[in-house]
Amino acid sequence: MKNTYQRLTLVIILSTVCLSGYTQNANQEKQAILAQARAFSQAFMDKNTDKIMDIYTKDASIFPNRRKIMSDREAIRKYWSFNPKVKNLHHKLMPEKVEIVGNTAYDYGYYEGTTEYNGRQNNFRGKYVVVWKKTGGVWKMYLDIWNSVQMKKK
Amino acid sequence: MKNTYQRLTLVIILSTVCLSGYTQNANQEKQAILAQARAFSQAFMDKNTDKIMDIYTKDASIFPNRRKIMSDREAIRKYWSFNPKVKNLHHKLMPEKVEIVGNTAYDYGYYEGTTEYNGRQNNFRGKYVVVWKKTGGVWKMYLDIWNSVQMKKK
Q1: What was the ipTM of the complex prediction?
Q2: Residue B119 and residue B40: Cα distance in Å, rounded?
Q3: Which residue among B66, B143, B146 sits closest to A149, beta carbon to beta carbon?
Q4: Which of A10, A18, A114, B45 allows an S-S link to B18, with CB 3.0 to 4.6 Å?
């Protein structure tokens, strides 16, 4: 009888461990992802390419409009390199939903930003889907795709 | 000693069950997703809006370029409705990678297609990221985002 009880306890413990991969600290994980998203915007505004690269996994792919899929890390670094003449950058992500499945997550939402070049302001606005992976305890972007949302004409 | 052995066996069995959610029939699941991707292309070529809608989850969102995120099912249906004058449609998906995490999956790759309107051919080419969910035993698209790849000028 004792053994049956012990085994049942073991089954319950293991089942809980099994499920906890999905549910444990879900909100904490979500906050960690949102913090990384904000860190990306800050790195963009700081023109900090190294920091941006640190928010992508080593095997990340990005999907800029009109270009082929970029999976080469140096190509991604070049894409996120900033012209020294570009200034007064603004960048903001507005996540609509974050969902976590184990060590993978995805989120989607809107983004908006501004760059200024030779005194001329460029405003952009769009929507994105990001697939995240938790690697070495840190959430990083694995797939990053976006496209525009039409700006209202002034 | 026998009990220790039995308990160890139980741990191994439960651990295997626990992990199998990720790995069991992975290739079979991948093939099911790719079959749905081909079914989407076929439905596009058949101008079969009902079939396209059946490949999206009830709570799907699509991210067409220049538009806001579309989560309303009737809006998605309208987006994928075809002008009767459009004919000779071609559509092909070229998946680069499919990854499955439990009942969620994502894939990305390229697509290409053609439409013809009033004798004028329109060729399009792009790349996509899709987040899939297995619902009622069937893989369906939950998030569908794409953008263009520049066509070579002739």
Answers
A1: 0.84
A2: 25
A3: B66
A4: A18
Sheet of strand B56-63: strand arrangement? B56-63, B138-148, B120-135, B104-117, B86-101
Of B61, B66, B150, the CB nearest to A148: B66
B109 DSSP β-pair partners: B95, B128
Give kind and range of the element (H or E) at residue A123.
Answer: strand A120-135
Mean pLDDT of B132-150: 97
> Strand B138-148 to strand A56-63: parallel, antiparallel, or no bridges (unpaired)?
unpaired
The CATH class of the B29-148 domain is: alpha beta
The structure's pTM equals 0.84
CB contact under 8 A, B147 and A104: no
CB proximity A146 to B under 8 Å: yes
What is the C-alpha R_g of chain A? 20
CATH of A26-148, one of 3.10.450.50, 1.20.1250.20, 3.90.1860.10, 3.20.20.140: 3.10.450.50
The label of the residue with tokens 């499945």 reads: A101
